[in-house]
Amino acid sequence: MKPYVVTIDGPSGSGKGSLALRLAKELGFHILDSGAIYRLAALHAINKQISLEDEQQVLNSLEDLDIHFESGDELIIPFLNGEDVSLQIRSEEAGGAASMVASYPLIRTHLLTIQRDFFQPPGLVADGRDMGTVVFPDAKIKIYLHASAEIRAKRRYNQLINMGLSANIADLLEEIEARDERDRNRAISPLVPASDALIVDCSMMDRDQVFDLMMEHIKDQQ
Q1: Which pTM does this prediction carry?
Q2: How far apart (Å, rounded) are the C-alpha atoms in residues 33 and 124?
Q3: Which CATH number fits domain 4-221: 3.40.50.300, 3.40.50.720, 3.40.190.10, 3.40.50.920?
Q4: Where are the domains positioned within the chain?
C-alpha cells in the first residue's frame, strides 16, 4: 500500500500524544509530535538565553536545532541535541513558551519543513494543532480530538503527577483555557478542525474507546 499520513489534531490535553503513539505502533508507522517540536524549539532558545519575545533572535537560535524522537511505552521520548528532555518540555512553562513561539510566522515556516521531513515510508502518524490543515493538508486520514477544558485539566494533572512533577489543577485549567484562546485566535494556523476531519469528542470516552473508533475510521478509508 502506498505510504500515507494520519493526522491527529486537537487542543492541549485531548489525548493526542498517547493515542498517536499507540496508533503508530499498531500501523507500523513513523511518529511526529509537532507540539513537542515547538516545545523543543522554545527550550532550545531558552537554553541559549534568547528572549522568546524576539522572533528574529528565536529564529536565528534554531540554526543548530538537533531533534529526534524515540518511542516509549506510553509517550514519545523527545531528544534535544542528543539529550532526553521529556521532563523539561512537559512542564506547563514549556507549553506556554511553545504557544508563544508557535505564534510567530517565521518560526512556523522554518519548522514546517522539519515536520514534513518526518513523512517516510511506510507512513506517518502526526499529532498537533494544524497537521490536517497546514502541515499535511493532503493527508489521507484526518482526525480531530476534543474534550472539555475541565476534563483536559484533570488528565494533564494526572499525567504530571505520574511523571513526578508538581501540579495544581486550578492553575492547569487557567493555563489550558488561556492556551486554547491563543491557539484558536492566532492569525497564523489557528486551531480548527480540517473540513474533512473526523471530529471526536472524547470527554466521556476512555482511551481504548477512542483508539477503537480511530482504527475503525482508518479501515473504512482504505
Answers
A1: 0.84
A2: 11
A3: 3.40.50.300
A4: 4-221
pLDDT score, position 90: 78
Q: Is the dihedral of CA 176, 136, 39, 217 positive or negative?
A: positive
Alpha-carbon span 164 to 32, nearest angstrom: 25
Q: Which residues contact 87 (CB under 8 A, 6 or more apart)?
A: 163, 164, 165
Largest alpha-carbon pair distance within the chain?
Answer: 49
C-alpha–C-alpha distance, residues 19 and 155, integer Å: 14
pLDDT tens string 152-166: 999 889 888 887 888
Please name the amino acid found at residue 33.
D
| Alpha carbon distance 220, 222 (integer Å) | 6
What's the grid cell of residue 126? 502526526
Residue 177 contacts residue 13 (beta carbons within 8 Å): no
